[in-house]
Amino acid sequence: xxxxxxxxxxxxxxxxxxxxxxxxxxxxxxxxxxxxxxxxxxxxxxxxxxxxxxxxxxxxxxxxxxxxxxxxxxxxxxxxxxxxxxxxxxxxxxxxxxxxxxxxxxxxxxxxxxxxxxxxxxxxxxxxxxxxxxxxxxxxxxxxxxxxxxxxxxxxxxxxxxxxxxxxxxxxxxxxxxxxxxxxxxxxxxxxxxxxxxxxxxxxxxxxxxxxxxxxxxxxx
Length: 221
What we know:
By secondary structure, this protein is an alpha/beta fold. It is built from 9 helices and 7 strands; from the N terminus they run ααβαβαββαβαβααβα. Helix 4 crosses helix 6 and helix 6 runs parallel beside helix 8.
């Protein structure tokens, strides 16, 4: 049998099977714990105030649909500074033991340190060097990953771009929350259409309103 005929048979067999899920249908439920971690137990910015009750209702609903497996990951949250993006992600992480939080720049720095053999992990009193493959394995297996400050710099280096794209690919269909001060159109300009397509294939939520950090000052002025 020549290769052309074999290919025809492969196509016919694939056509008879149920189509595989498209990226837009890649949903995974996220297991939560009901009790919030205490400030002392929280690994992610324990001093930063956050509460599920303070999450804007539209974003709360988007999170609900994602964690229930009714809406696709990643969950992209865009909006100006101080609108509650990071606080919402931290509040969710407090209910997901083993979840990871990184800024885009921080993740790139970790990868550089891992490539140079300068990243160490301590477990049960024993240290060990964390190489890039170990770091990526942990990111792929984490129950939830939050990537903050996406597109936080005017220029995106090749290393930064590759790190973001690989994270999107490693976490395809898995719980991933992306936070940015930009919208998808701006991210497409900063990165490219491939990044924007991967993000936009998930669930998109937009936050607006004034900077919450400035409200107390304005009210007391």
